[in-house]
What does this fold into?
Amino acid sequence: MIVDFINNWHCYSKGNQEVWREAFDFIASVTPDTEAKKYSIRGDELFALVQDYNTKPVNDGSIEIHRQYADIHVLISGKELIYYSSIALLEQIKDFTPQSDDVLYTFKEDKSIGIPLLPGMFALFLPEEGHMPAINLDASNRIKKVLIKVHKDLLY
It folds into this structure.
């Protein structure tokens, strides 16, 4: 897991630098008016989901991991809390679903770290790293977000 400011993305591009550049170039192009939908950057290997939703209470969530993709979360507007947890500490509640590339685990606040995400920041979760996005930071609020999905084969 990496959490930092967007302008520092290059500090982490030690693997496939072109992929990082393409991902963060797309992020830079998104505005509050960008339509919420899927955008192809490199087909199914690198794509973006522009999302528009309300955050939710912490008790409405579960920890997820992905096996094939890393997630880069970037807020365009609003604020949210993303929880990070080692799945070794949690109970699995849903088996792997290839279509959504996820496995779900119970959320336990005492075994998780809450990370505030604000515009201008990014949070990167590698495959197999447990995370729970879209949680109220102070209260429910509307957010606009870019979620970049990077296939694990492109990371290095």
User: Anything to note?
Assistant: DSSP finds one helix and twelve strands in the chain.
